[in-house]
Design goal:
This is Protein Churchill. The protein is mainly β and 112 residues long. It has no helices and 5 strands. 0% of the residues lie in helices and 44% in strands. Strand 2 and strand 3 form a beta hairpin.
């Protein structure tokens, strides 16, 4: 991973968790070849670890194959919620939780 390739390391992305793709707004240029071109995805792997899906891949420079950042995305179901997390020097850090029920109990107003 290379902190010379990004504007900001691990920017806070709120609840925006990317399972694939790249956050190019944070991409400065390749610190190795100094070109600002597309970032490719390589070495993508998906594993299921005790009910938790983990997706990892590398962001690499299109021109010289320099590794810009390593991306990790996780998905799991905990109780009645789908839990998502993302951690990547380029794409940032984020987490989200969504109810699997039609109406999210956390969003309902109290009766009294």
């Amino acid at each position: 991973m290379c902190n010379g390739c990004v504007h900001k390391e691990y920017p806070d992305r709120g609840n925006t968790c990317l399972e694939n793709g790249s956050y190019l707004m944070n991409y400065l240029c390749c610190a190795s070849c100094h070109q600002r071109d597309f970032v490719l995805i390589s070495n993508k792997a998906t594993e299921d670890d005790d009910g938790e899906e983990i997706v990892t891949y590398d962001h690499v420079c299109k021109n010289c194959d320099h590794v810009v950042a390593r991306h990790e995305y996780t998905f799991s179901v905990v109780d009645e919620y789908q839990e998502y997390t993302m951690l990547c020097m380029l794409c940032g850090k984020a987490e989200d939780s969504i109810s699997v029920l039609p109406d999210d109990p956390r969003q309902s107003a109290p009766l009294f």
